[in-house]
Structures are given as structure tokens and as C-alpha cells.
Amino acid sequence: MSRPTRARTALTTGALCALLVAGCGTVPDLPGPMPDSVVPTRGSGSVPDETGFLSPDGFDAARRMAVRVRNVGCEGVIRGTGFAVGERLLITNKHVVEGNQDLQLSTYDGRDVSVTASESADLADLAVIRTATDLDTFPQLAPEDPEPGDSVTVVGYPNGGALTVTKGTVIEYTSDPLNVTLGQVLLTDASVEPGSSGSAALDSAGQVIGIVYAKSSDDLSYLVPVSTLQELLADDSGFVEQEPLTC
């Protein structure tokens, strides 16, 4: 597969640093601890107008496997998204779960999911979260990475709110501008916002082709390709358990 290495110059270092801190956003600093009464941990359950490139059945499965992630740390709150890859296994970004005192998960229909452990990868901006109860459904991982020009649908919870679906196209393969992921990453024009980090990027068949981890200053999104996730999941040492912080 041909993978051009041309990097996007529109991506700025300052925006990227802020992006990581805020969970795929551009807020410069984390807020202080926020009361549950004003932080959405459960959505309204409304169905998005858009279903991207997914069939009705594919969209229904996608919304049931997508999970809100709320990382309560010593410095504040980070919001992100995760998605199931097994009955009790979620994938998200490493920067979404790092420095947590308490990880809180909730599903599309408002059900809380208890966390038993979180583990981070050393070679990519990826993490796994293990749950105490079974998750509703999980998608298949695509057998290979997508080609430039392929369609992509991103399913996640921007800003910790209601489920959102955006669609776009894979533009190219490029070097990771953040230098946090080994190898090349995908650049797409699917829109993402704060809280989208860790969202699954799906092809038209509903298979995972990548994981959102960053956005550029010109509103393009960066994905860890599915091949990187598959390699890490196949390696027993690919993820290292994190201990929750004590503030």
C-alpha cells in the first residue's frame, strides 16, 4: 500500500499541545473540578440526524458500542470517547485516560459502566479500559488499513454530550505530527471536536479502520490506523496497566 509521507503544515505545535490536554480540543488549560450537576455524564438518547456512511443496522450497532469516557483527575476533567472491541474491553486514547483519579463510563442510553483497570500503550496514543460488566456490542476490526479516497464515519461524544456522527474521506497517510504514534497515521476530513478523542472511525461496512486522536488547526482529523491497534492487541506486552492517582 502506498503511503505518502507529506505532512500538513497547517498543524501548529501550540494547537496540538492544547489538543492533547483537552482530549482532542483546543482549550488551553484544564478546568478545575466540576460538579456532576453541570457535567454531562449521560446523554439524552437522541438519535443524530446523520448516520454517516453507515446502514441503519450499522449505525445502530455503532451507537451501542460507543461509550463516553470521563477522566476525573487531580487537575480537572478530561472528556473522551471509547468503543468496545470485546465483551469487557474498550479502546480509547492514552491521553484520555492518563493522570486519572477516577474513570467514569456511560453508554448511549445512560447506563453507567464500572471500570476495573486501564492500560496504556507505549508506542501509540492508545489505551484499553477493562469493564466489570459486559458491553452491548462490539464491531469488527477491518482486516487492513483503508486507502486514500475511502469513506470514513466517526462516531463519538464531542464535549461529553450527545452522540454525534460525522463523515468524510481518507486524504492520505502522513507522519505523526505529535510523535506519539509509531509509524504513519491517517489524515481525514471528517470533523471532530473536544471529546472526540478515542472515537472509532468506521468504513461503510461498520468495520473499524482507525481511532481518532488529534485534529489540525484547519479542522482535519488524525487517526491511528487499525493495523497499529491490531498489532498492539496481539502483543501481551502492548499495553501496561496504569495505577489511578491519589491527589
Automatic annotation (TrEMBL):
This is Trypsin-like serine protease with C-terminal PDZ domain. Residues 1-22 form the signal peptide. It holds the Pfam family Trypsin_2. GO terms for biological process: proteolysis. Keywords: Signal. PANTHER family: PROTEASE DO-LIKE 5, CHLOROPLASTIC (PTHR43019:SF23), SERINE ENDOPROTEASE DEGS (PTHR43019). InterPro entries: Peptidase_S1_PA (IPR009003), Peptidase_S1_PA_chymotrypsin (IPR043504), Peptidase_S1C (IPR001940). The keyword Signal applies. One of its GO terms (molecular function) is serine-type endopeptidase activity.
